[in-house]
Structure formats: C-alpha cells, structure tokens
C-alpha cells in the first residue's frame, strides 16, 4: 500500500460524499474459549446500568480487570484477580499488570458512558460550557493519559484499544446524538496511526438495547474482543452497522440553491486566514457580498491601508492582507476586518449586533476559525499537552457553541462550518484536531433547522502557493509529513480556485447537515489509512536476528529491509530513500518490536534518519536508568 495508488480525481463534481450507515452481518462467537483474552475496562466510579450489564457478560468471556476513574479523571482503584488494589496513576497500573503477568490484550475506554446532562434541554451557554468541561475532565483528557502512559511502559506487544460509547450518533430513526461523546470517535484511529503496536476501534451502542436485550450485550462484547477490520461500528438491537460514505455528484445543477445577496452582510470567522479569505473572495466576486472578516491578530485601520502598501518597513504579511482586502472591494463589496475571538460570546454577540446596525441584516456565516500556522503544527499523543489540546479544541468546539448562542432568534441563508476529513481519516498529531471537527459534524446534525441551517463541510487538505512552479507547498491543515493519503501533498490537495468551485456547488446543491469533500476516492483512502490492521503485524521475520546487532546497525538494517535498499548510512533520510507515512508506521512497528521501546512516530517522521532514531533510543535507555 503506497501513496502512489491515491490519485486526484480530475472531476470536481465527484469529490463529494454523504455520510451514512450500512447494516452488516453480525457474527456472535461462542462465549467459551480455551484461552480467555485479558481485558482492562476503564469505567466511571458510578457505572451506568448498561455498563453493569456488559461487565457481567465480559466476566464470562474474558479475564476482566476493572479500573475505576473519578469524575475529575483520576484513577481511583483497580480490581485485579477479584482483588481491589488502590492505585492512583495509570503508569503504575500498567507496570503492576506487566510485572504480575497480567498485561492486557484489550483496553476499553468506557468513560463517556456517564451522563452529565446533555440529553436534557440546555439553554444557557454557561451550562453547555460546564458540560463540556466536565466531559473533558472525566473522559477526553483521561483517554490521552491512558494511551500515553501505556506507550511509556514500553510493552510492545500488539493490543487493541476501544472507545466504547453509547447513544452517540443517529444510526436508526429515533436514536439520540451527542456531539460531546462523538469527540471520542476519531481517537482510536489516531492512536492506532501513531502507535503501531495498537489497533483501534470505536463501538457505539444504544443504552436501552443493552439493558433489555442479552443478545445485544453479547454482540457488543464480541466486537470488543474479535480482530478489528473496521474502525467505527455501531450496535443497534441485534444488528451491526458500519460507517459508510455515499458518493454524490454535484455538477452545478440547481437543487435547493442558496443565493447570497449584495444586501446585508456575511460573517466569516477566521476570514483573515487563507481558507477564510478564499471563501470571502468567492462571495465578493460572484455576488458582490458585503463581508465581515474576523481574526485574533491586530487590525490594520482602514485609513492606514495606503501607507502600509507604500511603507518599505511594513511586513510582507500586512501588505498581503491589505492587497487582498483591496481586491475584495474592487468587486463592489463593502469589507470590514475585525479583531474578534470566535470563542468569546460577549465579543461575538456585540459584533453581530454591530453588523445588523451597519448593514441591516446578517445573511450568512462561515465558521472558519482555527489554529493552523502560528505554532508548531501538530503534536503527537506522546508529546502533546492538555493545553495544546485545549488550543485545538477551542475554535472548533467553543467557537461553535458561541455561534449557536450568538445567532439565536435569527434566520440565515447558510451557516457553514469548516470541518476536516481528519474526523474520518485521522492523521498523525490530529487527536484533538479530529475530535474538534467531529464535534462540529455532530453538532450540525443535532441543531440544523430552517432558521439556522447548520452544515459541516469536511474539507480535504488545502495548499496555498503563489504559482504552480513554487517548490515549497504550505498546508494550513497538517505538518509536512502527514499522511499522503490525507491529502496534503500537492498532487491531490485542494487549491484555492478548486475550493471556490466546491463552495459554488454546495450553495447550488442545498440542504444537508454534513458533506465530505475528498479529491481522491474516499473509500480507498479509508482502506489504506484507517482500516489496515494487517499492516500492524508486518514486523518482518528477521526480528530475532536484528536484536543481536548493535542498536544503530539494527536501525540501519530495518531501513534496508523495509525500503528494499542496500546503501543506508546513519544520515540517510527515510523519505529520500522512498519511504512515506504508511511505511513510516511499519518502520515504527519494526523498531518497537526489535528494540523493545515504543517510538514516537511523529518524532521519527520529523527526523527520519537512523542516527536521529538512535539518539531517541538513547534517551529511552537513559530514562529507564534514571
């Protein structure tokens, strides 16, 4: 499986996909087995009734270890061999299990099963923030600690990691949906991509089914234990459902068209960024729309635009922004640039009132706020901090909540949220980013109505360059080493003009809460980049022999074996030798199996030479000695 198989479809009309679910054949395996798998279930202290029923079935079918976590996300105790052990850190739990011969085959994160109240009517912004913060403390942040602590235990045997949720998404008519719990769905994909000894899966069930139906419980537990071939499944009653994406052709035919107007104004949060400006340019050129573009950097006053263009000391960024704004005005649009934090409800509400006062009405919104270029792009699970995760989530999650309250009582032509294919494909360093995008996708599904027609658009990767000959391609959605299947390489990424065509097609198409934009076959990309569990076990047959060589020689030998090249020296670059992100996963897997340490794949791909990897291994050894 190489990136060469992923080719950009020349027909933009065929880039669009609609999310759906397909019923699959559900096979329930016998409950007795010669060797029971060992499963660690991580649950809230006060487990809901449905989880209690599932525990009973798990105890019959596997060696069950139960770890209980408080509402604040702290490990409280664990039950191992039917004995309660007081343990307060996951790192200590993994060491204890490893030393006692109880290393797990499956780790199940079931911390989202506690209901903090989202299913009731939540009116105030403060209540929603309280729920969001409670969810992050009790479920999202512990997931990061669980995975990171296990990886740092350097147990490199293959294990399964499952996010077990209930009532997260609408599969059948009448199902409830929860945008907060949905944030967990992409996490196993990213975990499995970054940590090659882990395979990941998300399983969602309907709580009432598990309580009332023994066969539903058996089906859920079966899919916790069996080999993973799909990363996202749902159990409803006695049926298994697989997430699917239906291609649709948008050739520009008017279906339920949205017709922007030169009257009123359109707000683009993050409109001063590259994607936001691309949307603004289309609206101005096509409709002469009046525009309000926001960002968090300082605003150049309108009366200083001329002087900025003439000032030799002015920054290139300021000159570029003024030039773009002038271009928008040439189309007849009135343009306002405003410094406004999209996560500040008071500031956003005040801005909307000001727009209505000046322009008469707010006609539409594009929510494109995000953090892309101002810092080190994205950090892997082993390297990320909770603060970095918060920074990623804020514009996506909090920004969406702010808009939903600031726009109450209004009627818009359109309300587009700029989501990403990362919610479906994952990607190195994309744990919080993909989760924030998934929140937007589910929020649009839950809240779309005639007055506020929320639509989440899962965009492919974008590239921006001054001309077609420019060698250095900048992406606003990923680091340079991210999966070529994700769409950040020049050959398949969306260029600004293509993105404008997509927006035009979406406006002509009309009504849906979610649409995906993939420049290459989405099914093929999911197969290559997500549903590839067989790739995990491809660690080679010469691991034993490699262990007998020196560490640096072992690393060089792994390069040679994996890439099929003979000449590799300590400074050889993995990508220059023909490697890509998919073979990078195999590289990390072989390194972990051979050297007995879990390597940070993000760091490997940032410094992809045998010498740099050898230095990373040396750090592991020193840490162990200390």
What's the helix and strand layout?
Elements: E1 16-24, E2 38-44, H1 49-61, E3 63-69, E4 75-80, E5 83-86, H2 90-99, E6 106-109, H3 125-152, E7 159-166, H4 179-182, H5 187-194, E8 198-205, H6 207-212, H7 214-225, E9 232-236, E10 239-248, E11 265-269, H8 274-287, E12 291-295, H9 305-310, H10 316-330, E13 335-339, H11 345-359, E14 362-367, H12 386-406, E15 414-420, H13 422-425, H14 431-447, E16 454-459, E17 463-464, E18 474-475, H15 496-509, E19 514-517, H16 522-529, H17 533-536, H18 543-547, H19 551-563, H20 581-595, H21 601-606, H22 610-625
Parallel strand pairs: 2-3, 2-6, 6-7, 7-8, 8-9, 11-12, 11-14, 12-13, 14-15, 15-16, 16-19
Antiparallel strand pairs: 1-10, 1-19, 3-4, 4-5, 9-10, 17-18
Helix pairs in contact: 1-7, 3-12, 8-10, 8-15, 11-12, 12-14, 19-20, 19-22
InterPro entries: ACP-like_sf (IPR036736), KR_dom (IPR057326), NAD(P)-bd_dom_sf (IPR036291), PKS_KR (IPR013968), PKS_NRPS_Biosynth_Enz (IPR050091), PP-bd_ACP (IPR009081), Ppantetheine_attach_site (IPR006162)
Domain Carrier: 546-621
Protein name: Phosphopantetheine attachment site family protein
Give a brief outline of the structure.
This protein has about 625 residues and is α/β, with parallel strands linked by helices. β2 (about 40-45), α1 (about 50-60) and β3 (about 65-70) form a beta-alpha-beta unit. InterPro entries: ACP-like_sf (IPR036736), KR_dom (IPR057326), NAD(P)-bd_dom_sf (IPR036291), PKS_KR (IPR013968), PKS_NRPS_Biosynth_Enz (IPR050091), PP-bd_ACP (IPR009081), Ppantetheine_attach_site (IPR006162).
């Amino acid at each position: 499986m190489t990136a060469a198989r992923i080719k950009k479809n020349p027909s933009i009309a065929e880039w669009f996909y609609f999310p759906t679910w397909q019923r699959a054949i559900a096979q329930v395996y016998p409950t007795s087995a010669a060797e029971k798998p060992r499963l660690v279930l991580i649950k809230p202290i006060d487990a809901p009734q449905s989880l209690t029923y599932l525990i009973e079935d798990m105890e019959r079918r596997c060696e069950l270890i139960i770890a209980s976590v408080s509402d604040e996300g702290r490990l409280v105790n664990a039950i191992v061999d039917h004995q309660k052990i007081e343990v307060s850190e996951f790192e200590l739990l993994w060491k204890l299990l490893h030393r006692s011969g109880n290393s797990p085959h499956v780790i199940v994160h079931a911390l989202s099963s506690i209901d903090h109240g989202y299913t009731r009517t939540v009116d105030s912004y403060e209540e929603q923030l309280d729920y969001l913060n409670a969810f992050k403390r009790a479920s999202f942040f512990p997931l990061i600690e669980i995975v990171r602590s296990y990886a740092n235990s350097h147990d490199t045997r293959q294990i399964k990691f499952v996010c077990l949720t209930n009532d997260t998404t609408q599969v059948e008519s009448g199902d409830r949906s929860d945008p907060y719990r949905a944030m967990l769905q992409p996490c196993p994909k990213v975990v499995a991509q970054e940590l090659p000894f882990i395979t990941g899966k998300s399983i969602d069930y309907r709580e009432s089914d598990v309580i009332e139906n023994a066969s539903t419980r058996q089906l859920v537990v079966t899919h916790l234990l069996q080999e993973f071939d799909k990363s996202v499944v749902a159990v409803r009653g006695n049926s298994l459902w697989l997430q699917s994406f239906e291609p649709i052709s948008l050739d520009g035919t008017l279906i339920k068209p949205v017709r922007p107007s030169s009257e009123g104004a359109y707000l683009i949060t993050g409109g001063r960024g590259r994607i936001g400006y691309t949307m603004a340019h289309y609206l101005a050129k096509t409709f002469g729309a009046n525009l309000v573009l926001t960002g968090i950097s300082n605003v150049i006053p309108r009366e200083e635009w001329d002087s900025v263009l003439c000032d030799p000391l002015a920054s290139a960024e300021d000159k570029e922004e003024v030039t773009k704004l002038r271009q928008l005005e040439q189309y007849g649009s009135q343009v306002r640039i405003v410094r406004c934090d999209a996560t500040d409800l008071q500031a956003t509400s005040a801005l909307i009132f000001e727009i209505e006062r000046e322009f008469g009405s707010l006609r539409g919104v594009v929510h494109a706020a995000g953090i892309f270029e101002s810092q080190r792009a994205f950090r892997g699970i082993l390297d990320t901090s909770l603060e970095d995760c918060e920074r990623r989530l804020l514009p996506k999650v909090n920004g969406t909540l702010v808009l939903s309250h600031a726009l109450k009582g209004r009627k818009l032509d359109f309300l587009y949220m700029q989501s990403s294919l990362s919610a479906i494909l994952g990607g190195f360093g994309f744990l919080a980013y993909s989760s924030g995008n998934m929140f937007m996708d589910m929020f649009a599904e839950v809240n779309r109505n005639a007055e506020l027609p929320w639509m989440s658009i899962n965009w492919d990767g974008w590239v921006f360059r001054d001309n077609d000959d420019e060698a250095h391609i900048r992406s606003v959605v990923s680091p340079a080493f991210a999966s070529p299947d994700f769409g950040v390489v020049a050959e398949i990424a969306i260029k600004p003009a293509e993105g404008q065509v997509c927006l035009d097609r979406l406006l002509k198409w009309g009504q849906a809460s979610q649409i995906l934009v993939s420049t290459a076959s989405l099914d093929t990309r999911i197969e290559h980049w997500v549903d590839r569990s067989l790739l995990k076990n491809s660690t080679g047959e010469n691991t034993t022999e490699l262990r007998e060589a020196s560490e640096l020689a072992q690393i060089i030998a792994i390069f040679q074996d994996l890439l099929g090249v003979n000449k590799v020296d300590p400074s050889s670059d993995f990508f220059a030798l023909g490697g890509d992100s998919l073979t990078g996963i195999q590289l990390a897997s072989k390194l972990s199996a051979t050297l007995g340490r879990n390597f940070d794949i993000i760091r490997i791909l940032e410094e992809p030479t045998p010498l740099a990897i050898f230095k990373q291994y040396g750090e592991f050894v020193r840490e162990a000695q200390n």
